[in-house]
Design a protein that fits this description.
5-stranded mixed β-sheet; Peroxisomal Thiolase, Chain A, domain 1; disordered N terminus; 4-stranded mixed β-sheet
């Protein structure tokens, strides 16, 4: 296994704290049975989802992000004014502008540091983490708040039985700090705009957003093949073996995709952090949500090596290899 150490002169990015937030309202499979022609068994057998959280009418992406941020700040035992960069990954901002990041900044009671959103759909958190890591390595930031937050229920068609069963709302956050110790080992990002129509949200003629349109089977096949490749790429880039990975923290899209990635790693599902059953697909929020759950319940411990990977509309995909 590659030695994970650093000299004093290197700028590494280490996760100092994590936090998450889920809206109170829960939409169960039983609830969906009353809305569309489906069953709990059909949904669970194909997706692994039992329930998902739905934001209240007066609850916006920035509200979810702010609550997750507060929990991450408390976990890292820092003051909010120590943060010198805020990055929010989201597909469902409160407004066209300003960014969710600047709204969260205001709610935290801080000002002056840069704050911006990243839009890479389900890969958004990996894109945001990569950006934060690069800021720290370049010396442009020392303490970054990275958030994945979504209110996907706002762009879900609840008459589309093949689609509405998937999505949930939520937010997850991390505090990434400059450190002598290695934290983020490597990140790998990709995109291919040729597949736009397989998974997208078009605009209506009046300019307002429509709802998610997805070619489910085609997206599933593409996701499995692409994630297979990025697992190989990540391990090869670091001279590591499959057995060097302690935990897989994947984007929570579908239990079958999670199982396929675990098989690729020769990894027991006991070492895969699974929250899709209770959260559904929360897009950019799913990885930091799952990470926070597994850290808070004691499964992931300091020193563990984690592989995060995600695939989303665009298509976008990426991975992050981290020593926690």
């Amino acid at each position: 296994m590659t030695k994970l150490h650093s000299s004093d002169t290197e700028k590494n990015a280490r996760i100092a704290g994590t936090g998450s937030y889920l809206p109170q309202s829960i939409l169960s499979n039983a609830d969906l049975e009353k809305m569309v022609d489906t069953t709990d068994e059909w949904i669970f057998s194909r997706t692994g989802i039992r329930e998902r959280h739905i934001a209240a009418a007066d609850e916006f992406t920035s509200d979810l992000a702010f609550n997750a941020a507060q929990n991450a700040i408390a976990s890292a035992r820092i003051e909010a004014n120590a943060i010198d960069l805020i990055i929010v990954a989201t597909t469902t901002p409160d407004k066209v502008f300003p960014s969710v990041a600047t709204i969260v900044q205001r709610k935290l009671g801080i000002a002056g540091c840069p704050a911006f959103d990243i839009q890479a759909v389900c890969s958004g958190f990996v894109y945001a983490l990569t950006t934060a890591n690069n800021f720290i390595k370049a010396g442009g930031a020392k303490c970054v708040l990275v958030i994945g937050a979504e209110t996907f229920s706002r762009i879900t068609d609840y008459t589309d039985r093949g689609n509405c069963i998937l999505w949930g709302d939520g937010a997850g956050a991390i505090i990434l700090q400059a450190s002598i110790e290695v934290g983020v080992i490597s990140t790998h990002l990709h995109a291919d705009g040729n597949y736009e129509k397989m998974l997208h949200v078009p605009r209506k003629q009046d300019g307002t957003s429509d709802t998610v349109i997805m070619e489910g089977n085609a997206v599933f096949k593409m996701a499995v093949n692409t994630l297979d490749q990025i697992v190989d790429e990540t391990l090869a880039a670091n001279g590591m073996q499959k057995s060097d990975i302690d935990w897989l923290v994947p984007h929570q899209a579908n239990i079958r995709i999670l199982q396929a990635t675990a098989k690729k790693l020769d990894m027991s599902m006991d070492k895969v952090i699974v929250t899709v059953d209770k959260h559904g697909n929360t897009s950019a929020a799913s990885i930091p949500l799952a990470l926070d759950v597994a850290i808070k319940d004691g499964r992931i411990k300091r020193g563990d090596v984690i592989l995060m990977e995600a695939f989303g509309g665009g298509f976008t995909w990426g991975s992050a290899l981290i020593k926690y």
